[in-house]
Amino acid sequence: MKFPILDKFYQSLNLINPYINNTPIISSNSFNKMFNLDIYFKLELMQKTGSFKARGAINKVLQLSEKERENGVIAISAGNHAQATSWACSQFDIKSKIVMPNTASKLKIEATKSYGGEVILTKGNMMDKCESIIKKEGLSFVHPFDDIDIILGQGTTALEVIDKIKDLDYAFISIGGGGLISGMASVLKQFNPKIKVIGVEPINSNVMTNSIKSNKPELFDTFNNKTIADTLAAPFAGKLTFEYVKEYVDDIINVSEEEMIESLRMMLERLKIVPEPAASACFVPILFNKIKINPKSKCLVVVCGGNIDIKKIKSLF
Q1: Which of 8, 82, 179, 189 could cross-link 77 (Cys pair, CB 3.0–4.6 Å)?
Q2: Is the residue at 306 inside a domain?
Q3: How many Å apart are CA 171 and CA 69, to the nearest integer?
Q4: What is the pLDDT of residues 26-64, one digit of tens each?
Q5: Is there a single domain that holds both residue 232 and residue 99?
Q6: Boundary-marking domain end, from 106, 141, 176
Q7: Which CATH number covers residue 256?
Q8: How many helices (DSSP H) and strands (DSSP E) are in the chain?
Q9: How many alpha carbons lie under 13 Å from residue 6 in its C-beta half-sphere?
């Protein structure tokens, strides 16, 4: 498989820059002393729509032809990609339909609607519902992760990081379908082949871990296996993202529900930010000493999103 060179990511960054936020990177003296590391938190929860997903969505929408824009767009998502796609389409007055599970949080449904998306809730398979609408209406599908334009968009996160921090030793990046880690790992490894890129998945939703073990993209039962990190609950591993993970990711660490909650609490208290569990997952390997890291290593923790409501936070604690 041919992977994109850095120039492709820079082209995407130049294209989407007028629409996205160059999100801050922060550190904590208390965390650095606690773990004897230099830890940097990339705050994608301060991105448009509250997550990194805005990068890939706007990059994909910008590739659409005039005819495709006229016909409109459709996407499937439990929340963050839904909001990102609706927002991206709203920048160009493109109609969007978003298929969401009927179990999606009310906050994320309402947020998606507020960006102009028409939400279609389903109890069944989201992809089946999506494909039936595409056949009827000829809408363009914006995939949540398994698309080169999405991967290039998400990879721009890493370009912002390396512009400010040189010689990173580790990068901790959460995995749902794998779009974010595919793009970021590709960029980070091309700049610094020695960096260790560590994927993080919930034990209760570890489709990429299973895929690496079997050496093929696997399916995952998200109906009978629930996680508080709902935005990481991918029902399948992407064919593209699976190849990127095999090529660029050094290891995948599985984390428990309890560990994500404790990590979220620590980030709330020490960093004064409100990450969603999918984002707090990335700090778990450091917090719970799940990987041996040399003292004073430079570690990147990608805080991928912050779309969590107060009721959910209260229920966790």
Answers
A1: 82
A2: yes
A3: 36
A4: 999 999 999 999 999 999 999 999 999 999 999 999 999
A5: no
A6: 141
A7: 3.40.50.1100
A8: 15, 10
A9: 10
